[in-house]
# Entry
Amino acid sequence: MSDLEDFKTRLKIAKSKLQNEKSEKKGIFLGNAFKLGTELIAAVIVGTIIGFILDNWFGTKPILIIIFFLFGAAAGITNVFRAAKRMQKQED
Amino acid sequence: MATNPMHQFQVNRIGPKIEISGIDLSFTNASLFMVISATFVTLLLLLGTREKKLIPSKVQLVSEMLYNFIAKMISDTAGKKAKPYFPFIFSLFIFILFCNMVGMLPYSFTVTSHIIVTLTFAIFIFVGVTILGFIIHGFKYLKIFVPSGVPIVLLPIITVIEIISYLSRPVSLSVRLFANMMAGHTMLKVFGGFVISLGLIGGWLPLSFSVALTGLEILVAFLQAYVFAILTCIYLNDALNLHH
# Structure
């Protein structure tokens, strides 16, 4: 008898899961949106830090930090581009 | 002091001070809540796998659903080759999920709202995946910095960009989790403070905001654990199947 009861709750959960599938997908899209922002910022930060370190090594104070900031921005855009491509692949 | 929204992130020592060769290794409230999360995980999975019934109990159902969820995520994003790394990704996901969820309880401490915790996870994954890539592919692994079909003139620039993009992985991974958790908890505390200061007359509006934000925070707590795990899978996939 209790097994039957268990089965009933399981059926209920499975049915509600079918309905919830849509809202679950919405949640995943929200996660993707969070992902893109940090993806862009992180590369810029890393690029600038590399430029800063190299500048300190070679004593060419402002030049390398500017160059690597631009490289970082480029890397950030590449990151975002790739993440967006991956999302499109997931949707198909 | 209690209304200070940043007060909740303070790390306090519990018990005696333990110092080994100049490094403070005392037991803190952060360590306490990590232990609590790990205990919850262990209890859930032990109870869930104690009796393996064909028609599962509720606890067994939850743990089987967790298993299926992660197994499907790994096979979707990283393919069959990633199967051996299932235990690592499963423990990572479930530990972060429980740390986030335990942090949602009143009077608790959110371990993942400290960047040192998330950065440690991220650097561990980053170093591990890089070593794995070199073990599997040898020096050919460096090819991920040199995409195919690029003109020779552009190659030095593209390589630098690729290297920065690769190095930015642990930063984006850790900052995302840390920033989301910290911002959410600060916001909750700020709105909670408004409820007190506006009192019985005006306090209802921030109270309703607080309730809505709590729901959002629970969603974010789950999502961030999910995003962390899925990105680990994607990085693993890059190391296992070398193609760009």
